[in-house]
């Protein structure tokens, strides 16, 4: 239509939303639906975070604040990054954003020029390519396969680098695969990037706490401190502290770009909800017991989902080591992922997210952040759907 901008006409509507809308419609018709399609924790936000936020409201923290975020919160985030992630950071290098999502959006807007190329390892979180295109950039995906454990193919990465390559995205623990990048892998990647000084790195660490026992999260900047002047960290409170609806995230990295992202934010959304930021501060200052408890629970349920998927005939799975998803591969003779998910929903009442949304049409994404009963019910429906396909 003539009244829409070119960039918005090109925007892909979210496949995830289409599936959940259809699942909801079927539910309203009275169908019994089992949903493994969610992308969020199934816990309520810990009580002490809510208490601190209610107190902030009562104390009158209800006005405009600095666009970059509450100074105390920026300081607490800088301290967290410096101590926990061993990435020396000061408060000027931190921007508080409306979720990790806005951190990524702002970053792309301030570092990408039209025609710049962004390298996105696939399968990827579905908003990355769309946000890169909204910044006018060209997307080059770097495919990986379940057969090689979804490992980044460094030869292919190197071969994909051209004069316009500007940014490489990393996401560990990863959505949708649950893959955790090993220290060695990050070191080798850093070596490669040392030869390409024009390439910036964005490391999305939003699932950093959600790790199988024995796994460790490494921030790319911690592995390659000499590259920290071109590495950005994106993180947030949504997944670790079960705060998806609060819209609280942050961007950290080189001060000039963070300053530019702050200017952009000051002319678009301004500060993140002032009293919600007090909740985030409480989260960072409080005990991590609540996070540990939730992680333990995801781990039990991830195991349940993983063993169930591995026992299904025809499915193959790279067992996830983090986050709360599994991304199994459909049998070779199966339908494409969108048709398979549509059929599973229509015929068996099972909602999943088609792998096509994440750049891999041979897989589907299921969550384990639901009750064990729902996982078992979902696995049974999936078994039937596979039989039929
Ligand atoms: N990055 C990844 C990999 C995600 O899966 C998500 C949420 O699904 C986000 C970033 C954004 O999180 P939020 O904007 O809710 O903080």
TrEMBL record:
Q: Which InterPro entries match?
A: Aminotransferase_I/II_large, AspAT/PAT-like, NHTrfase_class1_PyrdxlP-BS, PyrdxlP-dep_Trfase, PyrdxlP-dep_Trfase_major, PyrdxlP-dep_Trfase_small
**GO BP annotations, alphabetical order:** amino acid metabolic process
What Pfam families has UniProt attached to this entry?
Aminotran_1_2
What cofactors are annotated for this protein? Answer: pyridoxal 5'-phosphate
From the UniProt record, which GO molecular function terms apply?
Answer: pyridoxal phosphate binding; transaminase activity
| Family matches, as CDD domains | AAT_like
Which UniProt keywords are given for this protein, alphabetically ordered?
Aminotransferase, Pyridoxal phosphate, Transferase
- Domain named Aminotransferase class I/classII large is located at 32-382
**Enzyme class, UniProt record, top EC level:** transferase
This protein's record includes keyword Cytoplasm: no
The EC designation for this entry is 2.6.1.-
Entry keyword annotation includes Transferase: yes
Q: Which family does it belong to?
A: Belongs to the class-I pyridoxal-phosphate-dependent aminotransferase family.
Task: State what protein this is by name.
Answer: Aminotransferase
Name of the gene? aspC
């Amino acid at each position: 239509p003539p009244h829409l901008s070119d960039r918005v006409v090109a925007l892909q509507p979210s496949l995830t939303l289409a599936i959940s809308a259809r699942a909801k419609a079927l539910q309203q018709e009275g169908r019994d639906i089992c949903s493994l399609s969610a992308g969020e924790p199934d816990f309520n936000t810990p009580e002490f975070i809510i208490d601190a936020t209610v107190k902030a409201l009562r104390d009158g923290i209800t006005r405009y604040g600095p666009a970059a975020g509450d100074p105390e919160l920026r300081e607490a985030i800088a301290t967290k990054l410096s101590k926990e992630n061993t990435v020396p950071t000061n408060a000027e290098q931190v921007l508080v954003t409306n979720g990790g999502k806005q951190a990524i959006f702002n970053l792309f807007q301030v570092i990408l020029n039209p025609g710049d190329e962004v390298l996105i390892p696939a399968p990827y979180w579905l908003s990355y390519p769309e946000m890169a295109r909204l910044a006018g950039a060209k997307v080059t995906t770097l495919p990986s396969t379940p057969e090689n454990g979804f490992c980044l193919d460094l030869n292919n990465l190197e071969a994909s680098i051209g004069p316009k390559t500007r940014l490489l995205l990393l996401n560990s623990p990863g959505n949708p695969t649950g893959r955790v990048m090993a220290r060695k892998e990050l070191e080798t990647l850093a070596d490669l990037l040392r030869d390409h000084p024009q390439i910036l790195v964005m490391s999305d660490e939003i699932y950093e706490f959600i790790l199988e026992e024995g796994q460790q999260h490494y921030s790319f900047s911690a592995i390659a401190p000499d590259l920290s002047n071109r590495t950005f960290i994106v993180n947030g409170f949504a997944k670790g502290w079960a705060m998806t609806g609060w819209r609280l995230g942050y961007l950290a990295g080189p001060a000039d770009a963070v300053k530019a992202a702050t200017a952009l934010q000051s002319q678009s959304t301004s500060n993140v909800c002032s009293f919600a930021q007090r909740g985030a501060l409480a989260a960072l200052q409080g005990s991590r017991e609540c996070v540990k408890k939730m992680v333990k629970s995801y781990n039990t349920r991830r195991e349940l989902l993983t063993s169930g998927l591995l026992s299904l005939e025809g499915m193959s799975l790279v067992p996830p080591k983090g986050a709360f998803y599994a991304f199994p591969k459909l049998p070779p003779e199966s339908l494409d992922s969108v048709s398979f998910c549509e059929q599973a929903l229509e015929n068996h009442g099972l909602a999943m997210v088609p792998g096509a949304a994440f750049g891999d049409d041979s897989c589907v994404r299921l969550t384990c952040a639901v009750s064990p009963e729902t996982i078992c019910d979902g696995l049974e429906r999936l078994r039937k759907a596979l039989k039929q396909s």
